[in-house]
Amino acid sequence: EGKGKRRNPLHDFKKTRELMLIKVNKTLEVKTKLLNTTEQCAKRCSRNKGLSFTCKAFAYDRVTKRCHWLSFNSLTNGVRKKQDHAFDLYEKKDYVRNCIIGKGADYKGTISVTKSGIQCQAWNSMIPHEH
């Protein structure tokens, strides 16, 4: 990236138009604030700035310009999807991606079996194979 050019913080998020997540599990956390742009929401979510939890997604209300930072995403148990024309959902790609990039050290996806159905070896285990 060239000098003076800033990376768009939305690059790390998967956007789903007109979708909101509703928490059924009351222990899941949400924080909201008025912000003018989705870029500002994304930057704060990526840095977890001012949040007491790890931000995995945010929903932006286009009507009220309110950002809703979420400690969960669409794959989390205790969450329900709701069609809502006012919202766009932005989920961190690291948490919804079902592939490994590089050595997989930062993988946070949900796949834990091989294509043939064999349970994956835990990252902290050297059995049955060394890394």
What's this, in brief?
By secondary structure, this protein is mainly β.
Structure keywords:
mainly beta; about 130 residues; globular; Hepatocyte Growth Factor
Rounded Rg: 17 Å
Strand content: 25-35%
CATH H-level homologous superfamily name of one domain: Hepatocyte Growth Factor
Name the helicity range: 10-25%
Shape by Cα distribution: globular
Mean pLDDT across all residues, rounded? 87
In CATH terms, what is the fold-level topology of one domain? Answer: Hepatocyte Growth Factor
CATH architecture of one domain: 3-Layer(bba) Sandwich
H-E string: EEHEEEH
**Structural class of the helix and strand makeup?**
mainly beta
Q: Major β-sheet, in short?
A: 5 strands, antiparallel
Biggest sheet, spatial arrangement of strands: 1-5-3-4-2
CATH class of one domain: Alpha Beta
What is the first-to-last residue Cα distance? 33 Å
Number of strands: 5
Low-confidence residue ranges: none
Number of discrete helical segments: 2
GO molecular function: endopeptidase activity; signaling receptor binding
Pfam family, one: Kringle
InterPro entries: Kringle, Kringle-like, Kringle_sf, Pan_app, Serine_protease_kringle
Organism: Nyctiprogne leucopyga
